[in-house]
Amino acid sequence: MGEEESIGLDSPKVRAFRGRWLPASSRLKLTDVIAPAAPHLTVLTILILLLLYGYEIFNFSLSIDEEVYSHDLAVWEWISQGRWASGVLDRLLPPIGDIPMLSTVLFCAGIGVSSCLLARMLFRSSSSQRAFAAMFVSFPLWPHMAEFNMNSWGIGLGCVLLTMSLLLMFARSRAGDIGAIALLAVAIGIYQSFYIFFLVLLCIRYLSALLRLAPVAETGEERQFSWSRSGSVAIGGLLGYLTVTTVVLWAVSVRLAYVQKFLRLDDFSRTPASALHLTLLRCWNLLSAADPIYLGYGRVLMTLPLIGFMIVVGRLLWSAPLRPSQRLLGSATVAASLLAGIVPILVSAGLVPARSLFGWIPFLAFLTGIAFSVRFRLEKLLSTLLIAALSISVWITVSLFYSDHIARQRDQVLATRIMARADQILPVPTPRKIPFIVIGAPAWQDEASFHRVEIFGDSFFEHNGGDPIRVSAYLRILGVDLFEPKRLADATEYRSVIEAMPMWPANGSVMMVNSILVIKLGPLPPLVTAVAK
């Protein structure tokens, strides 16, 4: 593959183009920045992805938010989230998010292609390439992106765009830099966390070149890593994204929303003790492998990255033949990679969902590859640890998707029982639309093979305390287009009656209060109760 790609890059037309844009002394072949692929690297990556996502591909279950998308999510809703690229792609392409198998397959293809290319850009060693790719595609943060079929395919595309942006940047030409900036801006327009992802890629690429693990042309003295070029591309991509976002928001007269609720820096001034505690706790749980996303097996997954981290620190401080300035900059780059990965936690005061933290994945995968870059007698032990980590990752991923499948089955049963109760009390003849209120049920607890982790295992009837808009959209999917969602505030004058109602499944938990159908699955939220009193 490498020979074919280098021939294409050195074709007469390409040489003529590069001659106009790139000085002869700076020209690069593709093989100068991408090492030959490890044997069976692609096959290994595909097999791992099938083990991870095969269940989700062939056993689809609707996740939270997808009931809204199934009823034509408007382009301006994407734009209001700052994800204008997703809105444009959603309008130009067929409704890929409506086809769960296709969306997940494209997601897998995107992270698979990126993992293989990045592994070859970071490591010459075959064992390091395979270890990097395996950890990259299997880390348990990815399922939190794959669960949302409405944009999981966009995440896969974004990974490919960032990888291509990095490749264009290393072409060392003005055309390459412009292309890299454009691709980076589009990727950020798909999901803002891709900017952090790109910064981490820059950091680990520098470390790989500094420690002489990357392809030879990039580690020689004549081709040092260019922070000025990298910084220009990173800043240019961010400015390009912000410019397009501002113009598009102005053009469609939409205000930026959703993203701001995760920017909670004010919490550090209003409630500093609580904000600091939540932030440090979330960071510690993620770094120490105690976060719920690991389902209790995080230490197995983090063992290889920890070994790689110790090797990197040892090389930077003692063993590698580096100048003091290189040791200092390398150490700062390691710290920057760690900090970049947890920036979403810091700016959200610890409240950001796991799906926004995937920018940390390339750094952990890089450390895993580092662990396999050292030849010593414990290589078989490292291979055993990698197999164990992959097995745990497969179990975690399949368990989460299976839990969501169980949650959807429970929701269907609950919806059937609620409609049976409602049919007994609805007026005859039934109006075209019946106002209704849902008071959400308490969250289901972990039991047997069912696991509650953030959005996984969440019920439509309990999400956000019982959101009637979501419930109404979900019931329409099941064929019940009868209800008009109302808020609890719309029934303030009947609060005493609602408080006196028993909770599901008791008789009287579904009843008409004046002209509003009230479905009381759980207790009234504390705020509503306080207002009522």
Based on the model shown, name its key terms.
533 residues, mainly alpha, four-stranded mixed sheet, 23 helices, elongated
Q: Which structural class should the secondary elements be placed in?
A: mainly alpha
Largest sheet: 4 strands, mixed
What is the assembly state of the chains in this entry? single chain
Helix amount: 55-70%
Radius of gyration based on Cα positions: 26 Å
Order of helices and strands: HHHHHHHHHHHHHHHHHHHHEHEHEEH
How many distinct helices? 23
Strand order of the largest sheet: 2-1-4-3
Identify low-pLDDT runs: 1-10, 14-26, 219-223, 527-533
Tell me the span between the first and last alpha carbons. Answer: 72 Å
The overall strand count is 4
Assign an overall shape: elongated
Beta-strand percent range:
under 5%
- Kindly report the average pLDDT value: 84
